[in-house]
Amino acid sequence: MSVGDGERKIHTIGIDLGTTFSAVAILDQNGQAQALPNAEGSLTTPSVALWHEGTFVVGQSALDLVQSAPLEQREPLTASLVRGVKRMIGQPPDGGLLTGGFRTTPVAVSAAILAKLARDASTQLGFPVSQAVITVPAHFGDGERSATKAAAEMAGLQVLQMMNEPSAAALAYSHGKAVQPGVALVFDLGGGTFDATVLQHDEQGNARVLATQGIEELGGINFTNKLAGELQRRYESQTQQRYPSDHLASDLLVVEAEKAKCQLSEQNEITVELAPIGAPAASIILTRRQFERQINLHLIQLQTAVEIALERARLTPEKVERVLLCGGSSRIPAVQAMLEDLFGKPPERILDLDLSVALGAAYQAANCERVQQGQEAGLQLLSGGLIVDCVSYAVGIAILNARGDQQVKLIMLHAGDPLDTWSPPYAVRLASASSNFPPIAVYRGEETQLDAADYLGETIVTLPPGLNAGTRAMIQMLQDQSGLIHIQIVMNEQIVPGALQRVQH
User: Fold this and answer.
1) Average pLDDT by consecutive 10-residue portion of the chain (505 residues)?
2) Which one of 6, 313, 410, 494 has the largest count of C-beta atoms within 10 Å of its C-beta?
3) How far is CA 174 from CA 178, 418, 420, in A?
């Protein structure tokens, strides 16, 4: 496959590292983003992994390994499948993950998935791939982002940027087309996460993010689980037996619920044949109306998040010209109906709902490569497709209150602040002439009260020699284009960078 811009090859890929499926794209020789098929010939790779015989088996190969195994081996293999690791990145379960008798971490599993994506892309392109733009949910904090970057580096990839998923989708939407100026809302409902992002398009098709609001654990998995619960209840009512509790039966329930969810986006009524091994079979009729009742609370949660994003942007639904869908779960008719009721207009799809984020990441990858290598060659950034993002979550530091008897949070960066811009300084005075500045505890969130769940880590600053007690020090914070936090201390016109020692993931 030939890729590039004119005579110059593009070596940086765009990766959508999804909760349920992942995808890779790159700019082709005509300057258009194209999704790359994996080794199995599919444009999407299941985000699953399994430790087997001393190595990770990833994607469809892991699922095939389970399905082709003898029945007595299928149960332990099914129990060892790691799914939805994206929801664990940056905040792993106690004790880590256990797969195939091997104890590992979400970072290592994510690295295995990324390594397969890069390996398959290299095979498809005919040259090694070592650089990537990787997308993450807009609501991901520093912990999740730093853990994602660590996974990429473990997979042998240099991350040029971590890009917010709704921004990538908006870039895919606007590239190469005449986009009318105005406000758009990107509704990104994927397999495991949700983001609503409000942005403003200009006459050139470029966009500036005004506000974003996300829900960490709401996506297609939640809808599937609702249907799985309904299928189990109906099975037990129909057969007068408890549904089997083994891993094989549980996996079958989820697989059939996922199929039913997809079918109910196209049909009003379906029949699910549920036949767990060693138990009676049952034919269960499901209707779209029943499914919509099951997910009604989730629809309310989604609408509330959209309204919060609009409120942060100081806009009403009437001011939004376009509602742009991305993420496979936005196919659900009830989701689209909710948006049409709220905005008074039908939402638009952004290209392929499953691939738009990866395609946008490919355009950004080309831009990053131009910035990295192309200045001396006179290469320009892609026209009509620049995204100016903003701080998507508040971050602060722990300080003593005015009475000096309690630590509180001082917000340094607010949601909506510009990226790559140092915050207004917070002034302190050195208590002694020590070469060590007191560690600066960093927390996320708007609340002024400290919460251990919001703790990101502490910043260590080594001071230059010769400073006196009482020297004035100015603390500043910045969030870079990848959403990672940086802190610096300014003293006597000297800038001393701090090293954020993040919570280990």
Assistant:
1) 52 93 92 94 96 93 92 86 90 75 91 97 93 94 92 96 94 83 94 94 86 92 95 95 91 94 95 92 95 96 96 95 94 96 93 91 88 56 72 87 73 90 89 73 86 84 78 90 91 82 66
2) 313
3) 7, 22, 24
Longest dimension (CA), the chain: 81
Task: Point out which residues pair with 135 in neighbouring strands.
Answer: 16, 163
Q: Specify the pTM.
A: 0.90
Among the listed residues 255, 243, 220, the one whose alpha carbon sits nearest the alpha carbon of residue 66: 255
Which position has the token pair 């990766």? 15
Polymer length of the chain: 505
Q: 12-178+352-387: which CATH number, 3.30.2130.10, 3.40.309.10, 3.20.20.70, 3.30.420.40?
A: 3.30.420.40
CA dihedral 387, 419, 18, 360 (to 10 degrees): 10
- Provide the CB-side half-sphere exposure for 260 (13 A, CA): 32
Helix axes 106-125, 142-154, angle to 10 degrees: 50
8 Å CB contact between 457 and 442: yes
Contact 400, 409 (CB under 8 A): no
Distance CA(28)–CA(479), nearest Å, equals 32
CA dist., res. 136 & res. 131, Å (int): 16
Residue 24: CB atoms within 10 Å: 31
CA 481 – CA 408 distance, rounded (Å): 28
Please give the torsion angle defined by the CA atoms of residues 445, 450, 453 and 454, in that order, rounded to the nearest 10 degrees.
Answer: 30
Its CATH architecture, for the domain 220-292, is Alpha-Beta Complex (3.90)
CATH class of 390-499: mainly beta
